[in-house]
Amino acid sequence: MKMTGKIKTVFVFAIAMMFASNVQAQEATKAATNYDQGFRLGFGANAGYSTSDPYKLALGADARVQYDLSKRYSLTLTTGFSNLFVSKADGEDLGFIPAKAGFKAFVWNDQFYVMGEAGAAFAVTNDYNKTSLLLSPSIGYASKYIDVSVHYEHYSDFAKVNNNGSVGKGVGQVGVRLAYGFKL
């Protein structure tokens, strides 16, 4: 059986492409396994707006330790201090210490990410002895040193005032975090 010149060329080209793609895949695998895993430390400032009465403004500061599992996935631990300010003069502000663990996944260009955190919020002001479950999804942008994110935080056990004036549970806030971070 004779092969024509065009069929031989296509056959040789197809075999060459299989070997070339195999070499590229091995190089990509080697690069992924040699990723420099490590820790990062970041210090941030938070500002937000409470979605529950009697609180309105939320301000805080935090420190976050991040361990990079790979170039795209990281584990986080975050703590700091936050304060929810009341809107009326007769109420009391609520200050608390959040302690959260989370998972960060970079989804676009290794800079844009989504993150989910869960933990506890320990009230420390005004003789308010409550600890609340804290859940916080966020989206953000991170460069080598700067991290900017938008987040929602929900405190399931903190008291709020319902529309009818009764007291309920579950305070939330929408906020922005601006942070400076670096490798350790």
TrEMBL record:
Organism from which the protein derives: Flavobacterium ranwuense
Superkingdom of the source species: Bacteria
Name recorded for this polypeptide: Outer membrane protein beta-barrel domain-containing protein
Signal peptide: 1-25
UniProt keywords, alphabetically: Signal
